[in-house]
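Below is how a single chain appears once it has passed through the pipeline. First comes the sequence as given, then the structure the pipeline wrote out for it. We keep one example in the README because the format questions we get most often are answered faster by looking than by reading.
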Amino acid sequence: MSNIGINVRQGEPTRVHPAEETEKGLYFLSNLDQNIAVPVRTVYCFKSSSRGNEDAAHVIRVALSKILVPYYPMAGKLVISTEGKLIVDCNTMEGAVFVEAEADCDIEDIGDLTKPDPDSLGKLIYNTPGARSILEMPLMTVQVTKFKCGGFTMGLNLIHCMKDGLSAMEFVNAWSETARDLDLKTPPFLDRTILKARDPPIIEFKHHEYDEIVDLSDTKKLYEEEKMLYRSFCFDPKKLELLKKKATEDGVVKKCSTFEALSGFVWRARTEALKMEPDQKTKLLFAVDGRTRFVPPIPDRYFGNAIVLTHSVCKAGEIVENPLSFSVGLVHSAIDIVTDSYMRSSIDYFEVTRARPSLTATLLITTWTRLSFHTTDFGWGEPLCSGPVTLPEKEVILFLSNGQDRKSINVLLGLPASAMETFEALMMQV
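Resulting structure:
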């Protein structure tokens, strides 16, 4: 499937407002929301059916207007509060931006959605022209693109500070159920003040996830001088089992999860591919879902970010020269540390420092394997495929579930050309 030469004609953007009057005022965002204020762009592809695609945009638009009533903060506008933090102004209710578009080809011509492709897939998303920061972007934009074959795509651009992956999926699936005239089973839990910082703040842990690392290896130069290549690597259940076996064979790690084995493996491979100096400190960052780890647990249908960043730091030489069990053990310890007190300490740390995690010599793993992209049905059946348009930062690796039974994992990443060649060779060794 070639994706060269997709031409998309976008119509004029319009605003979609909540179908009924909603609450006004300023809507609080927690400290867990503050640190991930980046746009996340995804595309859902729906193949042609006997229903055709003529009313797709209308159905999706009307349902959006209805779902913006219970999820009213999504129709507000991001502003800076008197405390210097992000907050949502729901007084003006600017609404979501909606665009209808047409493509001059069939949906099969889009190409491989398992690989981020900002050039082609970017045409299926509406980006606000001239927006210099997220404060100048709507909280969500929707583009419905009709294809010649009768299929259509829905491109979403959502700002991450409004929700984590699980909240986003609950929102999109509730929206698609509304499009099928189903009632909202459970309204979202909107009160984010349950994750407010303590007064006074209590910082109980050393939060090295925010540490700035010196780039001894000059990887910045590599990224500047070489072309970025994006690749997707599929790990089927057999490969994943092999990795777990390899991680535990020397007895250092007694047992490990799929996430731990895969994360330890790609961290090690990427470090080697970037040819980091042995004394170069390297940091792994990833999010842990705090919903069940908070005491008491976060309420069901919590709308917001309930994920907390955890980390591990070591020298590149240690990670490359030691067996796989070394990096997998570090991943395991990073997950273990995430308790209620660690998460509260993280919230309070931001309250005091307003620090942003540094990404120098860092790998940030984002896992979407638990997210049910494939169940979104607006009345045209489940998507043919879905995925991200691009990775938010060059340091990000994304895990996506794959295959009919969702048991395979696609690993998506971008690297400078020479590093990608090495990384690909290391992937072949599994």
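The mean pLDDT is 93.

See the next section for the split statistics.
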